[in-house]
Amino acid sequence: MSSTTTEATLVPLEKPPSGTRPVRVSAFEFGRRLPFRSRLLCSVAAWLIFLAAWHFFAASGAVNQTLLPGPTAVGTALVELFAERDFAADVGQSVKRILVSFGIALAIALPLGMLMGAFAPIEAFLNALVSPFRYLPAPSFVPLLLMWLGTGDGQKIALLVIGVVFFLITLLMDNTRAVRVELVDCARTLGAGRMKVLWHVILPSALPNFFDTARQMLAVSWTYLVIAEIVAASDGIGAMMMRAKRFVQVDDIMAGILTIGILGLITDAAIRGMHRLCFRYLY
Q1: Which of 62, 107, 117, 281 is deepest in the core (most CB within 10 A)?
Q2: Which regions of the chain are under pLDDT 70?
Q3: Can you give the pLDDT at residue 61?
Q4: Chain centroid to CA 4: how far?
Q5: Which residues contact 84 (CB under 8 A, 6 or more apart)?
Q6: What is the pLDDT of residue 2?
């Protein structure tokens, strides 16, 4: 009896029809992430194609090489800037201005964004001021800042702060609003007060998104650097580029642009590394 029952319950596995091919998952599937090695190969290939196209276009004679030097000339100019013209000091000044200005912007935007995202009356009051300022171009403040703060570092740092702080407030407010309501309701049910919910529930929940927002807006801050440093500046990457413009040294100008791009990538990678280190549970 038991053997019959056992034989009846055993169902043989069906073999796939002969000649069928295994299902292959395409790399172009929606939402699919490539392995690190594949992403690295794609990135290297993209840069090699870009540099090759740039080299052949500059060498083709279609454009005067004085106005469009090739990548080799730009690389040589970059080496000469660091080796012979103390360009490292200019880079240090620019990095300092970016870090100081973004730190000030973050110190202003973080508490305001959290409070606006958490409490509707504060959002209704402050958003009437913050929203219009997002549409004002930061360079339009240059004449006022020159009259108010002079030509020193204060004017340049203030311009960099104005360029990102209002966008940063709005984005941090949206990050705060994205915190799940169930978490807040649970904490309130357990007797937590408003400030305790703000610091122990909302801030930890929104902090990973705060890092992503800071990374994106730091990139925007780098784009304002040259604007901040071309007006009455004696040092910095932008000042070097303006000196090169006077002598039509396009290779130096492009070397400055390349330097800003590399520095931006380094700061972006640093924030991404901090994000991965602080929020390992998300990876």
Answers
A1: 117
A2: 1-27
A3: 82
A4: 68
A5: none
A6: 46
pLDDT for residue 109 = 97
Q: What pLDDT is recorded for position 17? A: 59
How many residues does this entry show for the chain?
283
The matching CATH number, chosen from 1.10.3720.10, 2.40.50.140, 3.40.50.740, 3.40.50.2300, for 85-282 is 1.10.3720.10
Packing angle between helix 203-223 and helix 153-177, nearest 10 degrees? Answer: 140
Domain boundaries, the chain: 85-282
d(CA 142, CA 276): 38
Question: Rounded CA gap, 97 and 101, in Å?
Answer: 6
218 contacts: CB under 8 Å, gap ≥ 6: 98, 102, 164, 264, 267, 268, 271
pLDDT at 25: 61
Could you tell me which residues come within 8 angstroms of residue 247 by beta carbon, excluding any fewer than 6 positions away?
none
